[in-house]
Automatic annotation (TrEMBL), chain A:
This is Zinc transport system permease protein. It is a multi-pass membrane protein. Keywords: Membrane, Transmembrane, Transmembrane helix. It comes from Halorubrum cibi. Its main location: membrane. Residues 337-358 are annotated as: Disordered. Belongs to the ABC-3 integral membrane protein family. The chain crosses the membrane at residues 33-54, 66-87, 99-118, 125-143, 155-184, 196-213, 240-270, 282-302, 308-326.
Automatic annotation (TrEMBL), chain B:
SMART domains: AAA. This is Cobalamin import ATP-binding protein BtuD. It comes from Halorubrum cibi. Belongs to the ABC transporter superfamily. Residues 1-26 are annotated as: Disordered.
Length: 358, 269
């Protein structure tokens, strides 16, 4: 990972283009990848323009490219946050996202610091990803050594990250306060093409990894011991999981901010848990709920002139409350169905009397 | 991860000679195994061989190291001294997970997770499909396993809505779906209603008759005596290892549980 940082620093040091467009990805491959991402962004603008012409929604006005980018980032976050969150919540690891977000803040501070001192064009989000992933591995290794995830080690990592961040920023002094606010609370208007590109890369990595390892992640989440017996390397998948979490958290930080980012990992998943029966259903439902919260939240933020992160979380919590109510109704109806189910059962040893005693 | 796989491959390669000869060899082979979480050993100098097709119960008082012994057998723990072998390979390096079915005490699985019975049983096929999708053949095996444990009508039920007995059946179905040669059960009937317990032991007997090796960690002595062929009485060391009939007649139980009583009252040996 440190080699990666060096490469990034070297690449951006060599870059001579307009500072606003200087990219940490500027090596041969990085260039072409970024080219593809920009092309994709152009297609997205085009699509959004069409949606604007059809719906006439003011927030999609082609003059507001930043809104198009914010919606793209929001949609990606709405997929990957609950996707990863589902695996975290059911392992009682809901707060790891918060811990990693705070170390991500330290990463942002390091990025700003490097930019200020060495005049590098590194995106603070990139340093945030690196620092958060190191912290994630650190939490995981602590838990492997001590044999348990404990809230104490997580609290220590969380506060260390935040302390480091604030210290570095105070070292920088002046001129950075506005920038810090943007990272703490998120901002729709400051999603640059560069950070949108970084997010797209994170999105592909996260969704791809989960798609490939979904079997193993599910088994490890549901029953760690049985997963280990069945030959799955539990530690490896735990490491993968926390690294992905670090990526999601930093990706979502752009619009959610450090402080509220953990909510996207947890709230839609909690809502989906209330109404879903199967695991695959809960994945789909949590993504739908998250997208709903993100889109409604961005719209309210735009028209109401409020901070997007806060309103997205409030909408998500509102949806969660509705999901709880719906879940209660569902389970009440389910209990009524229960005896019927039992009578179909061929092996009648243990059926009928105890169904639905949840 | 690829490095890890390569490492495993060489381990498998090295062990290949042994595996070839171990087809008829013991399923579990512990010799002189000692293990402790701290300096005090929980399991001390245990030697135990379990052959294919056996139905073995491991009994002992609470805290006697039963579950630790099981974890050592399965390679979840590495012995401090002695060797643990599973199907002829070093247990902690063994990764042929499709040969082992495992049913835990029900507390171990995630609570409150939305997941259906069928999805739980599906996990039994994961060692076979690894990163792929389940084929229709795999799904057929899953449904067969559900039918065997009499849970076909509950396939789309959420696991959290089941009773203890039904949930335990689902976990057994998962072990069955893995088409394992060895079934390891750790106090599977804790929290299960009496009627289901009987049905459950009948199922185990039927599976054993089909040639599946069964290792049962059990606190309920009555069940052990009634159902298993061989009993291993453990309290840090092995106090008894032989047929269940002899076990009833021997004084192993008194010695094993009595030793615990003396320790509890503070009189050390």
């Amino acid at each position: 990972m440190s080699a990666g940082v060096v490469a990034v620093l070297a690449a951006s040091g060599l870059a001579t283009a307009d500072p606003a467009l200087v990219l940490p990805l500027q090596s041969g491959l990085g260039d072409s990848v970024f080219g593809i991402l920009l092309w994709f962004l152009d297609q997205w603008y085009w699509l959004m323009d069409w949606v604007y012409y059809f719906t006439g929604l003011e927030m999609l006005n082609p003059r507001y490219r930043f809104m198009h980018r914010a919606i793209l980032v929001g949609l990606c976050v709405g997929v990957m946050a609950p996707l990863i969150g589902t695996f975290l919540v059911h392992r009682q690891l809901a707060l790891i996202g918060d811990a990693l977000a705070h170390t991500g803040f330290a990463g942002v501070a390091i990025g700003l610091f490097l930019n200020a001192v060495f005049d590098l064009g590194v995106s603070p989000y990139l340093t945030a990803v690196v620092v958060a992933m190191i912290a994630a591995l650190f939490i995981e290794l602590i838990s492997e050594v001590t044999d348990a995830y404990n809230d104490v080690s997580m609290a220590i990592v969380l506060s260390t990250g935040f302390a480091l961040g604030t210290t570095l920023i105070s070292l920088n002094a002046g001129g950075l306060a506005v920038g810090v606010n943007q990272f703490l609370f998120g901002n729709l208007a400051t999603v640059s093409p560069q950070s949108a590109a970084i997010l797209l890369v994170l999105f592909v990595v996260i969704v791809g990894t989960v798609a490939v390892t979904r079997n193993q992640l599910l088994y490890v989440t549901f029953d760690e011991t049985a997963a280990a017996v069945s030959g799955i390397s539990v530690n490896w998948y735990n490491r993968v999981m926390v690294m992905l979490t670090a990526m999601v958290v930093v990706g979502a930080m752009q619009i959610m901010g450090v402080i509220l980012v953990a909510a996207m990992l947890v709230v839609p998943v909690a809502g989906a848990t209330q109404v879903s029966r199967s695991f695959s259903e809960s994945l789909v439902v949590s993504v739908v709920l998250a997208e709903l919260a993100v889109l409604l939240g961005i719209a309210v933020a735009y028209y109401g002139g409020v901070t997007a992160g806060g309103i997205i979380v409030l909408v998500a919590v509102g949806i969660y409350v509705c999901a709880v109510a719906l879940g209660k109704v569902q389970s009440a109806r389910g209990e009524r169905d229960a005896p019927e189910m039992g009578s179909i059962e061929a092996d009648s040893v243990d059926v009928g009397t105890e169904t639905g005693d949840d | 991860m690829s490095a890890n796989d390569a490492d495993r491959a060489t381990v498998a390669g090295r062990a290949e000679g042994e595996t070839a000869t171990s087809e008829d060899g013991p399923v579990v082979d512990l010799s002189g195994v000692t293990f402790g979480y701290t300096a005090t050993p929980v399991v001390e100098d245990v030697s135990l061989t379990i052959d294919p097709g056996e139905y073995v119960a491991v009994v002992g008082p609470n805290g006697s190291g039963k579950s630790t012994l099981m974890r050592l057998m399965l390679g979840l723990l590495e012995p401090d001294a002695g060797t643990a072998r599973l199907f002829g390979e070093r247990a902690d390096r063994f990764d042929d997970g499709e040969r082992i079915g495992y049913v835990a005490q029900q507390a171990s699985a995630a609570k409150g997770m939305p997941i259906t019975v069928r999805e739980v049983v599906k996990m039994g096929r994961f060692p076979h499909v690894r990163f792929g999708r389940l084929s229709s053949e795999d799904w057929a095996i899953v449904d067969d396993a559900l039918a065997t444990v009499g849970m076909s009508a509950f396939t789309d039920r959420r696991v959290t809505q089941l009773s203890g007995g039904q949930r335990q059946r689902a976990f057994i179905a998962r072990a069955l779906a893995s088409e394992a040669d060895l079934l390891v059960l750790d106090e599977p009937t804790v929290g299960v209603d009496a009627e289901s317990v009987d049905a459950f032991y009948n199922l185990l007997a039927a599976l054993n008759a089909e040639g599946i090796t069964i290792i049962l960690i059990e606190h309920d002595l009555g069940a052990v005596v009634e159902h298993a062929d061989r009993a291993v009485c453990l309290n840090r060391e092995i106090y008894f290892d032989g047929s269940t009939d002899e076990f009833v007649e021997s004084d192993a139980l008194v010695r094993a549980f009595g030793a615990e009583a003396r320790l509890l009252t503070g009189v050390r040996e």
